[in-house]
Automatic annotation (TrEMBL):
GO terms for molecular function: nucleic acid binding; protein-glutamine N-methyltransferase activity. Transmembrane segments: none annotated. This is 50S ribosomal protein L3 N(5)-glutamine methyltransferase. It comes from Phreatobacter cathodiphilus. It comes from the Bacteria. The keyword Transferase applies.
Length: 303
């Protein structure tokens, strides 16, 4: 009788090596928290074993039980057969080491804004535009999806109450689970609605926005991994910036005098700078350059 992979692959090292080979043969596409076959394999295997996902080395020689081996092989084959992003298959994604539940109702969290908030890069001590984080009392997270940025904002700005808005009620159901996981129900308020429409009269010290910003032609050409995510979480119109323009038009009416807007827009910098006479402050992260801008309330009022 022929041996199955579970008969021959005994250690975590064996499973990771097998996964990398299978992923390379299948020509998978990455970008949902990992960028290589090795990183994808390590994430799936560690998360599949409920081990810390930030360090593979200590576990490589661990001999796995047969049920563990069969489960991991099942994840490997499911990743190839379905082409779904790995976080959907394991039900979890991470930003700056903070875990969030995910499924097909939400885009897989991977915003540059999470890194900027959690590393303090936005504060003036980190040479960013935000003053003392303890002085931020009200935050708005637009297009919240899984609620990840709203939760990270509550962590980064400990005195802030956070409103988190999304048009998708399905996404807000996932966000509700994440709020419970992080004990944030009293700090973060989920609101169903279209951008600023449900927020009449409310003003904020900080508006965070990671809206859909992918151009239609790019969405139409998505590989299967990206097509697995909700289209509305990506599609930003013909040039990708329709929703960004709406945010720019209305954000000033919802900022306190000393407040500001931080917005992730992908690769649309040249379009915005040609279209708007605004003093965009472009902020870089470890993996991005010129894909996030800051504008103060005063900047927007002058438009």
């Amino acid at each position: 009788m022929a041996l199955s992979p579970a008969d021959e692959l005994l250690t975590l090292r064996d499973l990771v090596r097998y996964a990398v080979t299978r992923f390379a043969q299948a020509r998978l596409v990455y970008g949902h928290g990992t960028t290589t076959a090795l990183d994808e394999a390590a994430f799936m295997m560690l998360e599949g074993l409920s081990l810390p996902v930030d360090e593979l080395g200590p576990w490589l020689e661990a001999r796995l039980t047969r049920p563990e081996r069969e489960r991991l092989i099942g994840l490997i084959e499911a990743r190839i057969a379905t082409r779904k992003p790995a976080p959907y298959l394991v039900g979890r994604a991470y930003i700056q080491g903070v875990p969030f539940r995910v499924d097909e109702r939400v885009i897989v969290p991977r915003s540059y804004l999470g890194e900027m908030m959690m590393t303090g890069a936005l504060t003036q001590d980190g040479a960013g535009p935000v003053p003392d984080p303890f002085e931020i009392s009200r935050v708005l997270d637009l297009c919240t999806g899984s609620g990840c940025l709203a939760i990270l904002a509550a962590m980064a700005y400990p005195n802030a109450a956070v409103d988190a808005v999304d048009l998708s009620r399905d996404a807000l159901e996932v966000a509700k689970l994440n709020l419970a996981d992080h004990d944030m129900e009293d700090r973060v308020h989920l609101i169903a609605g279209d951008l600023f429409k449900p927020l009449a009269g409310r003003r904020y010290d900080l508006i965070i926005a990671n809206p859909p910003y992918v151009a239609k032609a790019e969405v139409d050409a998505f590989p299967a991994e990206y097509r697995a995510e909700p289209v509305m979480a990506h599609l930003g119109g013909a040039d990708g910036l329709d929703i960004v323009r709406r945010i720019l038009a209305e954000a000033g009416d919802h900022l306190t005098p000393e407040g500001g807007l931080i917005c992730e827009i992908g690769t649309g910098r040249d379009i915005l700078e040609a279209e708007y006479d605004l003093p965009f402050l472009w902020l870089d992260s470890a993996e991005s350059e010129g894909e996030v801008f800051w504008l103060s309330a005063a900047d927007l009022a002058a438009e």
